[in-house]
Amino acid sequence: MTVAWRPAEIVAPPAERCFLFLQGLPGPFFRRLGAALRARGARVLRVNLNGGDVADWPGGIAFRGRPRDWPAWLAALIAARGVTDIVLFGDSRPLHLAARRLAAVRGLPVHVFEEGYLRPDWVTLETGGVNGHSSLPRDLAAVRAAAAGLPPVSELPAIPGNFPRRARESVRYYAATLALRPGFPHGRGHRPAGPLTEGMAWLRRFARRRGEARATATGLARVAGGRYFVLPLQLDSDSQLRVHSPFASMAAALRHVVASFIAHAPPGTRLLVKQHPLDPGLLDWAALTAAAAGDAGDRIVFIPGGAIEAIVAAAAGVVTVNSTTGTLALAQGVPVKVLGTAVYDIAGITSSAGLDAFWADPGRVDAAAYAALRRLLVHRSLIHGGFHSDDGLARLVAGACDRLLGAA
Fold it and tell me: I want to staple 121 with a disulfide (CB 3.0 to 4.6 A). Which of 98, 159, 161, 320 is the partner?
């Protein structure tokens, strides 16, 4: 095992903070955040695990070993460079899990970024872990107590989405991963499908975009004016599903929810199944939904697209494994039933009824309770900004830099 630094650089850990960055979301965010931390006096290191990491952050320290070599290699790097903090995106990637275990042994804080618990306009940053690993309270009384002294959430500018930019950054990342694969012979991605497979799927979905728009309009017309529930599909690659739920796949969750709906939902009610906007289409969700519905196909409606805010606003309720569509629904006063482990799944905010009972009586949202949770999330776990626009990145870098340097 070798680590790419010169012997003269091996010194006792210095007094100043040293942030070690592992993998981030494709794009420039981590590189810009590292530059901002350096400008404020911190030392910054980056480990690159594949060619995409190199494209996003040239000059990082390359790990070219096997996964089994990673813990010892990382421990040596941390000791040699005097690392005081670890920064990463997604706490459940295999190498990130090992890094978190090592950090726990050494008493190092791990700062975890993730897509925002509240969307749009927010990015999650927690120390220790996110989602099911979060340290946020899961009891309403504790939430109310923690939020009692917090100021109201300020009205802040909207952070525009930019799917074409996100797509370009992802394509660049995965193209570099493929091009530089010989330099990282043992590197493996955390996603179930490889970049070529996903890329081809995205091309097919792009070619079908007009047909998807027609299918969405037809599906929404079928539920318009009637009583319906929404099941937002999640990505099979999402740790929210793979790690923080009882389901082995989104298809298994779909079958479970549809079966419950058919058996227990009142007559005249429909279930609207919506495809995730970032799903590349590796699976035929329309066909899977139809198969799960069987003879009750008239009651189960699938749509590949649509504006989720408007869809949820008119719904009788939302059933989710643990999608952030849940917080979007709660903000609009729409009852939510959670089937996985979500930071917002708190008795008194989300439904405590069983799934079978939820269809007939979803209950009502306690607006004051949800407002307390929202204040707590914003002030403890969220940063205003976004990954895929210049303004969003600028706000995110500034807020994240302040949060990281303020962390003890």
Answer: 159
